[in-house]
Design a protein that fits this description.
Blueprint lengths: L10 E5 L4 E4 L1 H7 L3 H4 L4 H5 L15 H7 L7 E7 L2 E12 L6 E8 L21 H11 L4 H8 L3 H15 L4 H10 L4
Antiparallel strand pairs: 1-2, 1-5, 3-4, 4-5
Helix pairs in contact: 5-7, 5-8, 6-7, 7-8
């Protein structure tokens, strides 16, 4: 599918598999990322969005993309995106163009006021988390994107036991999701 988006606003289009279809000149100017480097790649990989606390926003299981696919109207999402010279805090509006042969989604990017971006390597991480060897095994597999049921099979455990380990890992790392736990574990050097 080939098309051109005529707007002065930083904008890019992606398909239902999150592959960038078009990346306009304004998006290049805002991010410093050339269209050639964005086209054909997953949008989450290009933007690498994180929230103010450093939690992962852009990822391959994006719930906002799922809601957009279902036709839900979405409010702007504020995040820090990857740019050629570090990170930039932006607000991203999502527009769904449903109908026709294939759905297309647009992200309109604009600067957002707010706190400075989270540090890539925070100076003080607080106390190091204490995880059992089995919790570390589960965490490593979560970091590889393995679902709980498959972790149970690999480790010879029941699925409820794996879910208990995941809960304990989330509590120990102070995370609200498995993705955030993996992110925090990487910041602590556990993965």
């Amino acid at each position: 599918m080939e098309f051109r988006l005529a707007t002065a606003a930083p904008l890019f289009a992606f398909d239902d598999e999150l592959t960038v279809l078009t990346w306009n000149e304004s998006a290049e100017q805002l991010t410093g990322i050339a269209a050639a480097d964005a086209l054909g790649r997953p949008c989450w990989e290009v933007l690498r969005g994180i929230d103010d606390a450093g939690g992962i926003v852009c990822h391959k299981q994006c719930s906002r993309a799922r809601l957009a696919r279902q036709g839900w109207p979405l409010a702007a999402q504020e995040m820090h995106i990857r740019c050629a010279h570090g990170r930039r805090r932006v607000a991203v509006d999502t527009v769904s163009a449903l109908g026709g042969e294939r759905p297309v989604f647009l992200h309109l990017i604009r600067d957002a006021p707010g706190p400075p971006p989270a540090e890539e390597e925070p100076p003080g991480l607080g106390r190091p988390p204490h995880l059992t060897p089995r919790q570390l095994d589960v965490l490593r597999l979560l970091g590889e994107g393995v679902p709980a049921r498959a972790i149970a099979t690999r480790l010879g455990l029941t699925e409820p036991t794996v879910r208990n380990h995941i809960r304990a890992v989330l509590l120990e790392l102070g995370a609200h999701s498995q993705l955030e736990a993996v992110f925090r574990a990487r910041r602590h050097g556990l993965l």
